[in-house]
UniProtKB/TrEMBL annotation:
The chain crosses the membrane at residues 65-85, 91-110. This is DUF983 domain-containing protein. InterPro entries: DUF983. Pfam families: DUF983. Keywords: Membrane, Transmembrane, Transmembrane helix.
Amino acid sequence: MTEVPYPTHSEDGARELTPALLRGWQRRCPCCGGGPLLKGYLKVRDECVVCGENLSHHRADDGPAYLTILIVGHIVVMTLGWAFVTFRPDPLVLVTVFVTATVALSLYLLPRLKGAIVAFQWAKRMGGFGDENA
């Protein structure tokens, strides 16, 4: 078992949000931080291979896609406007650069945001992530 760099639970049993979000962003198990959260590009494992935490309760659905569109859209549109006004590039160059940047940024952010959303759900005990004893 790997050593956990951040505490998983506080003294009162509450799950720490910040460490869980950091682990989720890194696509690691929100509980232990040791096991991989995703089986493929976006498929969440049913349970952690290191600590055995059940991860099948997640309900990320379209949340990561919406957040990705929101973030990428704001970054690309602001940068596109700035580049057009400042440099006045050829339209073909502008389209090529910004389509490539949009796709690359989207592919980078999507699995990380999915991991963060699953970690948020785990930390806040949403859905089936609550205590079974409660």
